[in-house]
Specification:
Layout: E1 9-20, E2 27-38, E3 42-46, H1 53-60, E4 68-73, E5 76-80, H2 88-95, E6 96-99, H3 111-121, H4 126-139, H5 155-167, E7 173-177, H6 185-201, E8 205-209, E9 221-226, E10 229-235
Parallel strand pairs: 3-8, 3-9, 6-7, 7-8
Antiparallel strand pairs: 1-2, 1-4, 4-5, 9-10
Helix pairs in contact: 3-4, 3-5, 4-5
The structure holds adenosine-5'-triphosphate and magnesium ion.
């Protein structure tokens, strides 16, 4: 028997549009984006350079304000013609985990502290921060490198530390901008499998931009963006 709770929408966008600039310099980065991503889903975002992928992640992460449409995160209306929450920083801290193409770890902190610092920002006691950090690094199979400085980590290790950091506050919505771009295909597969495991175990949603054809089978669903429009989606049988 499958005893997992039924999926529910974590990310809902309707008619989202975003342009930068005005007049001759206007760029319509997103024109009319409607998408729903539910708990446990791992969704891929594909499209040529400039098609709006990063902008879409930044809108979902409440970093870029859209111009039109509405967006609900974890059941809460966040944007409807304007931001409906004043404390977007807190919203991000509580609900959203960002993973970038390159790890951007803090070079002067070891792996443990790179993760712990996020928990400290959220107000946890130092001891608890370190305990949870080590637990997360273990979960991501990089616990043996917990005292290493970023410069001493391999690309794959550093990316897993960065993922641990993105997950530190147990976000339900994980946004990743080409998380495997700097990795070889074996390590890219490991990172994607971890994201899948996480989505399933923590009832989270993962939305990941990728150019990497080799990992497309790791997604439940794929959206393709072109000129700010979603042009095609592919349902995939989850493994
Ligand atoms: N802050 C900004 N100011 C002005 N234009 C922007 C800004 N951010 C993005 N754009 C423009 O919006 C369009 C979409 O950009 P976006 O970064 O979302 O593309 P992308 O699909 O992520 O591309 P890539 O694959 O190269 O990362 C591009 O034309 C880009 O130049
Ligand atoms: Mg981009």
């Amino acid at each position: 028997m499958d005893e997992r709770p039924p999926p529910r929408p974590l990310v809902e966008l309707r008619g989202i549009a975003k342009h930068f600039g005005e007049g001759e310099t206007r760029v319509d980065a997103l024109r009319d984006i409607t998408m729903t991503v539910s708990t446990g889903e791992v969704v891929g975002l594909l499209g040529p350079s400039g098609s709006g992928k990063s902008t879409l992640l930044n809108v979902i992460g409440a970093i870029v304000e859209p111009n039109q449409g509405w967006m609900r995160l974890d059941g809460e209306m966040i944007y409807d013609g304007q931001w409906l929450r004043r404390d977007l920083r807190r919203l991000r801290l509580e609900k959203i985990g960002f993973i970038f193409q390159t790890h951007n770890l803090l070079p002067f902190l070891d792996a443990t502290d790179n993760v712990a610092v996020v928990l400290q920002l959220a107000g946890l006691a130092r001891e608890e921060c370190v305990r949870r950090s080590v637990e997360l690094l273990d979960y991501l199979q990089v616990g043996h490198r917990r005292q290493a400085m970023p410069a001493q980590l391999s690309g794959g290790e550093a990316q897993r530390v960065a993922i641990a950091r993105a997950l530190a506050n147990r976000p339900r919505i994980i946004l990743a901008d080409e998380p495997t771009a700097a990795l070889d295909s074996a390590r890219a597969g490991i990172v994607m499998d971890l994201l899948r495991k996480l989505a399933a175990e923590q009832q989270a949603s993962v939305i990941a931009v990728t150019h990497d054809e080799k990992i497309l089978d790791r997604f439940d669903r794929i959206y393709r963006l072109r000129d700010g429009l979603l042009v095609k989606t592919e349902e995939r049988a989850a493994a």
